[in-house]
Task: structure prediction
Amino acid sequence: MLTGALDDFTVRVAAIGSDAVSLDLVAAALKGLPVRVDFAGPQTGLELILGARPEIVLLDVTAPGVNGSNLLERILDAAPESEVILIAGQYSAEAAVAAIEKGAADYMAKPLSAALLHSRCAAVVEHLRQRRAALELDAEVLKAHQFEGLVGRSPLMLQVFARIRRFAPHFRTALITGAPGTGKELAAQALHNRSEAPRGSFTVHNCRAGAPLPDVFPENAGGKTLFLDEIGEMPVEKQGKLLEALERSPNLKVIAATACDLRDRVAKKQFREDLYRLLSMLEIRLPPLADRKEDLPLLVCCFLEEFSRKYGKTIRGITPRAQLALARYSWPGNVRELRGALESACKIAGGSTIDVRDLPESVRNGVGLEGMLTLAEAERRYVRRVLESVDGNKARAARILGINRATVYRILKEKTTAAGA
Result:
């Protein structure tokens, strides 16, 4: 039973077969549904599909010489967004399961019942209507969950947005931590944009490159923000010069970012403790994408919209099997890797929908070795998530976890020790 307003919703149907009686039955069975039906024989069916890009394909495989399994694969390869209903000469549970496993939406057998065909097609039409409505809803939700270029509705990201919103008017120095690809520069830009002087310059300096510090340290540097990326890679001698420059420029806002544990580097005398304390007066931790998978649909919507414009294409969404591949993957490169994967997919996609075949091989193959977690790593990630939920308060996190604070420190320290081994 169809629900909702479908006045402006029309589904394209391609009926492929050689039996005129069956084609007449299809036309009669689909009356009353919001569909436009085109008919073709088995030899010209693929040509029709490539031209019309139908949402539903009724594929009659009873014609002599037609290999149903092969033709189904070719149709799904040519138009992965199509919902294919296979019509066979006789019903077999094994054949139905095999066809659906290969990608068919449904399986029916002759003699066709007009009432049953109407019911099955109506169910697929309703599914397509819901999918289209979900895409439109995602676009609306995306607008509500974009924050200064960052996207998310997960509790972890909403907490990040809230911290930036609360502290941006008041900070002088800040430290943004997170794995590579989590969006540290975007978070820094958001802090600057939400500060008291957002029209001032935002200067980026990569500490890994070895270039001298930019000349942004005069005493009247009000409104300026210096973003120090990869601060953990800055040599100790330059750290002292940076500290002196900061002391001479009380009006300059400084945001540092790092993927490493600066406390561990302080303990190893690789990073100045006084500089660390100055920079970490406000700390914002960005979670890895693996810890906020609920944000995937919004991020996908955001990137498809961006790359559709960039490459002059109309990409409406992704197929269910592509969605499954994205959800299963561990995303070791975080949001940056997702963005790159979807840009590549948009470049090579032949239709209006991204299919699993358009995704990079690493994503198609699911979680690789880099995504497999040891028990210690899983424990560390859970402790970190609890810490993030309580704004880094280790005593409170220890109470929630049912362990003492020393154990929290030990679990976190074991990661850095193993990483440096």
About this structure: The first strand starts at residue 11 and ends at 16. Residues 1-7, 367-371, 416-421 have pLDDT under 50 and may be disordered. The CA atoms of residues 9 and 325 lie 29 Å apart.
